[in-house]
Structures are given as structure tokens and as C-alpha cells.
Amino acid sequence: MLAYLLRRILYALPILIGVNLLTFTLFFVVNTPDDMARMQLGIKRVTPEAIEKWKQQRGYDKPLLVNGAASGTGKLTDTIFWQKSASMFVFDFGYSDDGRSIGREIATRMGPSLAIALPTFLVGLVIYVSFALLMTLFRATALDLAGVALCVLLMSVSGLFYIIGGQFVVSKLWHLVPISGYGGSGYDGGMGGFKFVALPILIGVVSGIGSSSRWYRTIFLEEIGKDYVRTARAKGLSELRVLFTHVLKNAMIPILTGVVVVIPLLFMGSLLTESFFGIPGLGSYTIDAINAQDFSVVRAMVFLGSALYIAGLILTDISYTMVDPRVRLS
Q1: Could you tell me the pTM of the whole model?
Q2: Domains (ranges, CATH) in the chain?
Q3: N or C of the chain: less Cβ packing under 10 Å?
Q4: pLDDT per position as a tens digit, 243-256
């Protein structure tokens, strides 16, 4: 197991370098350090001297990838790419272009993101699996057909519609919960703060019913036709017991493939949801950084997302050994 983990971590390093290089290239194809300086200083009446001073203070006065004026390893290390990227591999994200600590911002904003993402994930998982089992139990009936039609309908609706429609109906018409205000003057934390995340959680769960339940239903239908299920029925077991004792247990590996990978990404927040509801999480932090052309924050969030996704894949492989003893990692 230890050798497997070490190998996967070593395999991850080239992937992280490639993702970082791709992010760097894409960002500076459409932006230059001068554009970033103008954005931060104000486009109107900014002098060339002010731009050069801003670039020198933040390390953007160096070449992008290769420094032809340097010698030896300095050709690669005395560049914007190296100096902005090397420290990330020890999770030192440095400072944003406005001077704030990125690591501190991530630690602060992780809580609001988890306050939405974690309940959405847990509640949604229970609802999706239960609904899929219900459709499987009544397969090839009118109830199953109605369930599949509902899933297809929900899948066909844009996620943006759920957000705007939910805000209009629940907040504007019914006045049940506020649209925004998380962390503001009216936010008192604890259960009192639940009203600020209740609607985003509800929208997150509802918007995922269609695709997730239909996928779980496909998994269960594949298992329901196997020999061990027929054997269990021949022993006189009820259909409910067959589903929950045998089918659900044997379907855990494909379910874990989708579930465990998502867990590390919960920390990254939702870009749309946090932006529309004014929640100061990591998703809105990323959107704000893109709008402000803050490369330091953008590359930190992309790097963190890639690292968490790779960690999710490793956790998925490890979880296989827990649900299926036949699987061995070596």
C-alpha cells in the first residue's frame, strides 16, 4: 500500500506541472503583465513608471518562461513561471496581486464553501440513491417510466435556471429565506445562519437529481440481472432485501468511483452558486480573481483543484479495497 501511494504521488508531479504550465500559458496569452498592472492601478491616467514599479514589486518584470540574459539554471529559475509556481508544490501560495495572503484567504473561505457543498453532497447522495433504488424496485412499470421522464426533464434544465428560478420563487415571492447576506451584518452564525445556505443547498440537491439518479439506476439495473440476484430470490428473499442487502452492496464500487472523487473537490466551492448568492467562498474567490486578472490567485486555485482531484482518485482506489476484498493495491 505504501509503495502504491508513493508511486501515485510521483505520477502526480508531472500532471501538476503540466496543469500549471497550461494555466500559465493560457493566462498570459490573453494578458500581459502590463495589462495586469493597468487593471490593478486603474486603466485611466496610469503612467509607464507606475506600471514598471508595480511589476517590480510583484515579480512580473522578469521574462515569462526563459531568461536569456541569465546564466546556468537562472535561465529557467529567474522567470515569472518558476518564481510564481515552484513554491506551490509545498502549498505556499504566496500573495495575491493586491497584497493579501492567498493561503489565509483559502483557509477563511473554505468554511463557507463547505457549509454549502457538504450538506448538498450528503443529502443529495441519500436522495439520489434512494430514488434510483425506488425506480429499480418498480422497474418496467408506470412509476419507473415517470421517474425516468422526470430525470430526463431535470437533466435538460440549465443549472442557472434553478438558481434564478429558486431565488425568484423562494426569496422574492414567498420571502422564506434571504438571497444573500452570508457573513454580513445579519449573519449570526450557527443555526441562525442556516437560512443563508438553505436555498443554495436545496438548489444544489434538486439540480443533481436527474443525472445522478439516472446514473445510479443504470448501475442497479445492471446488477439486478446477475446470477447472484436470481440465487437470492430463489432462496425466498424479499425484493427489498435483495436490493438493499445484495444489489446495493455489490454496486458500491461504481458508486464510489463517482462519490469519492467528488469529496476533495467539495473544498473548491461552486462558482455559480456562490457568486449568485454572495457567499464568500472559494468559488466566488476564483471568479473575482479572474475578473481582476489576478494571476496569483487563479493559478493557486487551479493548482489546488488539480491536487485535490488527484487525491480523490487515490482515495477512490483505496476505498475499493474496503468494499471488495478481492481488490489489492500493490
Answers
A1: 0.85
A2: 2-90 (no CATH), 109-323 (1.10.3720.10)
A3: C
A4: 988 899 888 888 88
